[in-house]
Amino acid sequence: MSERSVADTGPGAGGRVERGIEYGIEFGVSWRRIAAMVERYWYLLRSSWPRLLELIYWPAVQMLMWGFLQTYIAQNAGFFARAGGTFIGAVLLWDILFRGQLGFSVSFLEEVWSRNLANLMMSPLKPIEFVLAMMVMSIVRLLIGMVPVSLLAIGFFGFNLYGMGFALAAFFLNLIITGWAVGILVSGIVMRNGLGAESLAWTIMFLLMPLTCVYYPVAVLPHWLQVVAWSLPPTYVFEGMRALLIDHVFRLDLMLEAFAINVFAFTIGAFGFVLLLRSARRHGSLIQTGE
Amino acid sequence: MQSRKAPESPVTATVPAIAVERLVKVYQRGMAVDGISFALPQGSVTGLLGGNGAGKTTTIAMIMGLLTPTSGTVRVLGADMPRQRYRVLHRMNFESPYVEMPMRLTVRQNLTVFGRLYGVRGLAERIAELARDLDLEALLDRPSGKLSSGQKTRVSLAKALINHPEVLLLDEPTASLDPDTADWVRSCLERYRTAHGATILLASHNMGEVERLCERVIIMKTGRIEDDGPPAALLARYGRATLEEVFLDVARGRVRETAQ
How many domains does chain A have? Predict the structure, then answer.
């Protein structure tokens, strides 16, 4: 991709680009600027050991707690003895979802906390490049947290997440897209409403936890709530995980349905972000990024 | 500071660097900017004066494309803001003590990130040059959050100059600085302007600063332009010895009788 993007090319750029810019959507992206933002967040992570530790310790605590619980139950119930690893698998996949969203949102919050948002919004960095950089960083943060914890799961409980093979890739893709869809929307809300909305970044995913059936099958829910659960892409992933670990079947149909809903959810998130950015520009939120 | 070639641009020198026409910004709490118009020729240095709430920062934010006008137009180097902002943002920059650099990053890391965002070629050399010019060499590897106010201002100025901006917007660049550091910052701005012929718009409460740096002064009050002209002409018009006295006349509503 050239250094100068489509939108920089002057009056001949064409009507599609002009309309896109008018609606806050930028079509051309500069990988150099995305890399610069990733570098910025990497500098930050590298400079702060508490930030690095925070990425690892909570997933590790969760995994250990659920792992020991599962070990105890498996020793006393025949079904759970067959359903080896569902709790540990669920907690690891849940962390992909939760940490994926949090990694995205925290990168954005770092800019608000450091009062740097106006510097970025005044620079040639386009919103789409900013979003792409936060997506990359959410994966980086996730890997820093999940790789050591998944290795611990092998050591403590003999549960090998990577043994899921292609299924793990499908689970990961669907969960991370849901995380980004929620993260992008939360970032837009913080951008528009200030740090008063920060708590959303930390808690919003827990609203989904009971509905996405992380630790139990969808069939446990009342019928009317099952309809809601099936409208959420992570539900398909957790059902798919149980099918894989209990019945040893990879449900591609569930993954494709989850992906289709994810495309819709991400579109809604991105569209919401664009609307909130436009609203922030109208209300002066970009120059007053406090409470 | 080294001078450089004029950038390739479809915009000719006849186009104002900044053109503001009938600009209005209304917030829910009321009118912030009320139909102001002005045009700044390329290479000019203009001071934007006014008390708190006069509309200076709102005007600058609209020029930067951070704020959408309620009505009216802003054009920077011929580009309509904020609609066409990506055509010109790489040719502008700004500095304000109210916007900070990430504190945990070192000065060098911050300048590197912003240099890359602005697509600066020869970035390492540019950072070394700015460090020399702004006396930052000893600070380059220190976290930005550990610097004093004066040092932070110099770093912000380095960030503002990293892309050799043709249009530089400064919102109270010497606020909360001691007189020595403030004087030093003004000298840097004068050197940059002389070397590069940049257009500078400077919002300030410091009348001495405006008198020293600016060839034109726009005085705002409650969102409107109350007066506009070269400092000498304003002094003559109001029969005052200093811009501060002129400012007080405007702020206290003694405009008409004094000016007339």
Answer: 1
Strand order in the sheet with B224-229: B92-95, B167-171, B199-204, B45-50, B216-221, B224-229
Which pTM value belongs to this model? 0.84
Residues of B in contact with A283 (CB under 8 A): 27
pLDDT of residue A6: 32
Q: Give the mean pLDDT of A41-56.
A: 81
- One DSSP character per residue, A50-64 reads HHHHHHHHHHHHHHH
User: B249: domain CATH number?
Assistant: 3.40.50.300
For residue A274, which residues of chain B lie inside 8 Å, CB to CB? none
Ranking A11-15, A185-189, B22-26, B27-31 by mean pLDDT, the lowest is A11-15
**pLDDT grade, residue A198 (50/70/90)?**
confident
DSSP string for A150-185: HHHHHHHH---GGGGTHHHHHHHHHHHHHHHHHHHH
Domain that holds residue A282: 28-287
> How many other CB atoms are there within 10 angstroms of residue A169's CB atom?
11
Predicted complex ipTM: 0.85
Mutate one of B25, B58, B59, B66 to test the A interface: name it (highest A CB count within 10 A): B66
Residue B105's CB is within 10 A of a number of other CB atoms, namely 24
Residue B130 located in a structural domain: no
* Structure tokens, A208: 């989904």
Domain region containing B197: 18-99+166-259
CB pairs under 8 A between A and B: 113
Assigned domain for B125 exists: no
Binning pLDDT at 50, 70 and 90, where does residue A28 land? confident
Q: How far is A187 from chain B (nearest CA, A)?
A: 17
State how far the Cα of A70 lies from the Cα of A83, in Å rounded to an integer: 9
Q: What domain count does chain B have? A: 1
Is residue B77 in some structural domain?
yes
Distance of residue B148 Cα from the nearest chain A Cα, in angstroms: 16
Q: What does the block give as tokens for A220?
A: 């446990």
Which chain A residues have a beta carbon less than 8 Å from that of B86? Answer: 5, 7-8, 21, 26, 124, 126
Show the tokens assigned to B253. Answer: 């509503």
Residue A5 domain-assigned (yes or no): no
Subunit contact A8:B94, Cβ cutoff 8 A = no
Tell me, what's the pLDDT at A106?
Answer: 92
Q: Is residue B161 included in any domain, yes or no?
A: no
